[in-house]
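May I ask for a sample protein chain and its fold as tokens?
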Amino acid sequence: MKRTLTFAALWFVLFNLNLRAQTPANRADALRTLNGCANRPITLGCSEDTAGYLIGLYHRGDRALLRPLLQAGVHSDGALSEILGEFYSDVLSKKPRTFLSAVRSRPLRQQGHLCWMAGVTDGGGMGPEIRDVRHSLRAISSQRDDALSSVARICLANVNRANASK
């Protein structure tokens, strides 16, 4: 019996082959590619697929990936910014002290930008979790002897700016 591929089946096969070709082979390859996302000019291969792969590893316990994922957001645009913003928002809402600690070592302008990206998420702003995020950031920023209080204030201002209509 002779089989023919429908257009939809052919598209599906080609899409999956292309996706596999874009996905890094391992963590080290992905980090090298992600480093290209953080530099100007952006190097070939930098994409949201690389970030998505590393974000998956982060969620499976590779916490050392937070810093390089933050670095990628300093110069990101387009789809990469969307996936990183969503990731930053998730970390900020679930582990605010972890996010703030990682952002704290960056220059003030980058701190504000990364917090704004967390607030804007994928472009639509935060959902209902914004209330808890604001509460956490206010609580941390009010503790003057806390090393994270100043970055929490910066983050709160930028999350609020990203969600001005909420």
Q: What stands out?
A: Residues 23-38+46-162 form one domain. Residues 31 and 68 are 8 Å apart (CA to CA).
